[in-house]
Design goal:
By secondary structure, the protein is α/β, with parallel strands linked by helices. It has one domain: Rossmann fold (3-Layer(aba) Sandwich), CATH 3.40.50. Helices cover 34% and strands 23% of the residues. Strands 3-2-1-4-5-6 form a 6-stranded parallel sheet, with helices on both faces. α5 links the parallel β5 and β6. α4 runs parallel beside α5. The longest helix is centred in the N-terminal third of the chain and has 16 residues. It is globular and about 45 Å long. It starts with a strand and ends with a helix.
């Protein structure tokens, strides 16, 4: 079995208020388990350059954000304290939806011999889906941690887990995933 990394994605203050708080609680449980089991933990968060010079105005997601959002110093862009990175954990800042976009995530994973990703994030229809699909194209396996992911649209969350993500990877609760480590 290949090594696993836990990706905690977009658990930022602004995002955490838009979804069921259970996902944050379960992400904290996954983080605790990963730390206890020696699983590589990578935190991924959205951060744009001041003035959003890296956010194209035609992009429906990033082109409409106010210029003071998700830039260094924005308290809403900080990683939520319940899943705050430890000093020795990797933190990557992306500038698009996927955790791979604008980061050296793939390079880090390959350098560390990682072949399997445990995905937790906000939102299921955003970073989780985008990262999972890109991971597949890069030949990674993944497990979407169903109770450590959330979407502002709970029905969409369920459809993605049931009808898409489980056909391309694995879907498991944090407890089920922890039992495999």
């Amino acid at each position: 079995m290949s090594r696993t990394a836990l990706l905690l994605m977009d658990f930022q203050n602004a995002h955490a208020t838009r979804v069921d708080p259970t996902a944050l609680t379960q992400a904290a449980a996954a983080l605790k388990t990963a730390r206890e089991k020696g699983v590589l933990v990578i935190h991924v968060a959205l951060r744009l350059l001041p003035g959003h010079v890296d956010g194209h105005p035609n992009n429906k997601v990033f082109g409409k954000l106010p210029a003071d959002r998700f830039v260094p110093g924005d308290p809403d862009a900080e990683i939520h304290p319940d899943v705050a990175p430890a000093d020795d954990e990797i933190v990557l800042y992306k500038n698009r939806v996927s955790a791979f976009a604008g980061t050296n995530l793939d390079q880090i994973l390959r350098a560390q011999g990682i072949g399997h990703l445990a995905l937790a994030g906000i939102a299921t229809g955003g970073i989780v889906l985008s990262t999972a699909l890109q991971a597949i194209d890069l030949d990674y396996q993944f497990t979407a941690l169903s109770d450590a992911c959330a979407d502002p649209n709970p029905e969409f969350h369920e459809v993605l887990l049931r009808d898409l993500l489980n056909r391309r990877g694995e879907v498991a609760t944090v407890e089920e995933w922890a039992a495999t480590l």
